[in-house]
Amino acid sequence: MLTIITPFYARQRDDYLYERMRRFVAQEPLVEGIHRLIVDFGSPQHVVDDLAAYCQAADIRLLSLGRRGEPFSAGACRNHGAQVASTEFIAFQDVDLTAPPSVYQRLARSLRLASPNFNHLECLPCLYLTPAGTLEYESMEPEAAKARFQEYFAEGDVERIQMYAPATSAIVLRRSFYLSMGGMRQEFFGHGYEDFELMNRLAWKARRFIRSHDYYSHDYKYGALEYRGYRSFFSLFGRQNMASGMFFCHLYHPTPALPGYAKRNAANRMLFERFVKALDTDLELPPALCDGASTQRTLALSGRNTIPMKSIRMAIAHLGNVVYMEPGDFADAQTFVSYVRENRFNRVLFLTPYGNEQRLALYHACKADGIPFLVFDRGALPGSWFFDPCGFNADSASYAPPKWNFPLSAEAKEAAERYIDALVSSEETLEENGDRIGAENLRAKYNLHGKKVLFVPMQRPGDSVIRHFAGHAESVENFCFVLSQLSLRLPPDWRVVVKRHPLETTMPPVPGAIELAPATHVYDALSACDAVLTVNSGVGLLSLLFGKPTYNFGSAFYCHAGLSTQVCGLEDIVNRVVELRAPSQEHVLRFVHYLTDVFYSFADTQCRKVNEGGATRNVAVNLDFTELRLPGQTPRTFLWRTEPARKNSPVYDFYREYIARMGKPVATPTKVAASKSATTRAPIKAAVPDVQKAGPASNVPAARRMPGTTARKLSKLIRDPRRFFVDAVRNRVG
């Protein structure tokens, strides 16, 4: 169920961390369903040997990164631990954090009942104890100590509690979520802001709470009563756990005087600010972490930091150990084959193998040498993507009739019918289209009433399927020439209607044809037409779902008996089009069932338009998979939280006064006497102490910094959380 990962590094045996780890291994509870994993960064071998003996005695797993001499990175330890863990959930706990068995038991119970959402995220809050508080805590039985210090917190005890942090590095989430989001960035060194940067990414994707105002501000600490700054936002992920009694206590230790600490902390702060803003503006995320617990190895023929590889981050987490190489890294196909064999890769991952000649040569080498591969690209249905182990588009055996042409159960047939009905009545398409106006309005707009319409969706001249599978069409330009001849050869009641590809700004002229406005919705054109002719566009598949006779000039993956018909010349087109032979409804249902329930993966996709060589391209930058189908693996369905808790939810009650003031006019300042110059006094901002910088001598803990009413509410929240939320709802309704 859960693996708790603890990073560790000690320079020698007299390092205080050495004793803390001995205590941690010997005393921190182990409960059913929770496993512990300690990751040593690079301690001296004698320390590692000692730690190994302690862990073996306590039945705790230990891993060593062996990075002695390098600057310590807790993030590297956490990432490695997450990669090798085998449980559904992971959490992080430093050696200074402690809790009694009841906290771990409550955590295990909560995870058994946890939200099924893939992007579920929560924090375990922490009470930072003073030296006196630490001595008292360690002198007591753990359960009694937890209860006592929870009471001290509610009373605002400053002698024993140094500070309260509702959000810490002690996060709890699904392992696959952590891996897909890239884990902790390795650009940070020393202490400071790396936890905040990770939390920013995870909280952004978790969509659990409304984001706070002035989000980039560092000025608002955990004790601030205004819902402003990133810390206030992060705090909501832990406040409910504090109210339920699920928290850690941090045992005091002196802060080591590290050379260059202030300089490194300032540099980390700048990194944090840059990464947070890059996520907001460009959806910029680090590459996904691969699954180190898997015995499978995948060679990805692309850079790790490329947009396509980042976009499939959820899939990367399920492809085993992934190694990234560019096609240009190999001198020739034989060098590539030798590399794959020698390194015992289980598969090669291609992105559109026909994209360039180097990639295509390696793709053909895989086929010739029997090397397993996956081809990733976008499918022809809205939101669809595929990982094809047999090829790409028309050259793939994945679309052969034996894969899909068999009788369907009543349930499968009904599901396929529902899918088709939903699609043809929607506006969801692969590329951006204008609003739908309906088939009748489209016919009226272009004077098509009483006419038979042959709809021709145009394709991009440089597309891989045009360059490699155009067949008799040869090219878009030649296809347009054929269309101009076709308009002269069809019976007089026929009209050829063409639509430019949404991402193209021009197209070759087609004399005699009617050109639809670029914003015309393709579904209106499909509804209004009598037949569809294409080279091999994915619109041809949609045409089948609309029940239209469909003809393809080139090679198309949907060209099979009962579906689309391939034509090979002008005479062939004329003869076949006028027949108006509709596709087999049964075959269409079988093919749709196969695509939607067996072959395609589906994802909510975020795209960005980019210009390359004067052409516009829609690039997928983020795929939130709802269904992920990887060959040889059980299909995965992902549920997502998509909306945050509403503003009137009790989870925001710590900031209720501030939220209640939002949108209300500011009181007009009192006018001064006419004989004096009128001045407007700037509003006074209450000073909020920096709880993160509070040291051992601080005597202003979080609980006591608050006004009396707030302190009483907080005390009530700790004593009786159920009554607190019931009263909060009653007061708001009242």
TrEMBL record:
Domain Glycosyltransferase 2-like prokaryotic type per the UniProt entry, residue ranges: 3-277
Listed transmembrane segments: none
Any Gene Ontology biological process: polysaccharide transport
InterPro entries tied to this protein: Capsule_polysaccharide_synth, GlycosylTrfase-like_prok, Nucleotide-diphossugar_trans
Gene3D superfamilies on file: Spore Coat Polysaccharide Biosynthesis Protein SpsA, Chain A
Superkingdom of source: Bacteria
Record-given protein name: Glycosyltransferase
